[in-house]
Amino acid sequence: MHVTLLGTIGWMPSDRRETTCFASRVGDSLFIFDAGTGLRRLREPAQAALLDGARDIHLFLTHYHLDHVCGLAYLPGVLPGRELVIHAPAAELNGVDPERAVAGLLHRPYNPRDWEELTGLRLEPVVAGANEIAGHTVRVRPQHHSDVSVAYRVDDAFVLATDTRIDPQTAEFAAGVGLLLHEAWYNAADPRTEATPAELRAGYAAHSEAGAVATLAADAGVGRLVPMHLNPLHDESYYAALEAAARAVFPHTDVLPDGAVVDTKGTI
Ligand SMILES: [Zn+2]
Ligand SMILES: [Zn+2]
Question: Mean pLDDT across the chain, nearest whole number?
Fold first, then answer.
């Protein structure tokens, strides 16, 4: 199994990186995680193989912050004529009715057509614990962010944990997977972190620090850590320093560009 990185940054896109989106072909199905601006990369020729022959397409949402859902508006252009199942967290996980939340995003005056008018889209909430989807076991657990987000584990292949504070239970959730995609919003060892204006640093409490993420990856015994949901206020040299800091703790760490394809056995 492979995961294609379609959007590796948080909050706002940069000229190199789109906001959060990942895709994986699991047999005849295409699994997409989050619908940030990176969703548009499915239109790139390099990603055609992801869609070719995909019998069904599943989009899993971690939470409803706009950097993770703005791509919902792109669906008619990115996946024309395709049916799509949206898997959003059930209300028991985050206190939010998924139907209301998704319909609220795809609704006039924010979208040219209302959710009820859109054809080919179906909502199937995911619950805490194991969900059987397209012949795969997709495990879900709630995480603490500024709101609740959820982490996903697909079989024993990979875990996606974004928009979360460091949570030791993520190590348990990710135990033994080949690939851990985990957010790394900042690097405490980098002086540029402290130079960020105080009002922006306040938001760091809802996110994860790179060294702590690496410790978590080591505790979980994953094959490879790919830090993502990088902070767009910084540049590629900051991300390189973040990677170095994480590698000092967990050597199998790679900050990768948008478009990279990662083997879930822990190799590129
Ligand atoms: Zn985000
Ligand atoms: Zn968020």
Answer: 95
CA distance 232 to 219: 28
User: Strands 56-60 and 29-33, how do they pair?
Assistant: parallel
Q: Which residues surround ligand 2, an ion (CB under 5 A)?
A: 65, 163
pLDDT recorded at residue 206:
92
Total tally of structural domains belonging to the chain? 1
- With respect to residue 267, please indicate whether it lies within any of the assigned structural domains: no
Q: CATH number of the domain at 228, please.
A: 3.60.15.10
Residues with CB under 5 A from ligand 1 (ion): 10, 67, 163
* Residue 67 alpha carbon to ligand 1 centre in Å: 5
- For ligand 1, the distance from its centroid to the CA atom of residue 252, given in whole angstroms, is 24
Over residues 152-177, the pLDDT tens digits come to 999 999 999 999 999 999 999 999 99
Which H or E run contains 92? helix 91-94
Whether residue 259 lies inside any domain: the answer is no
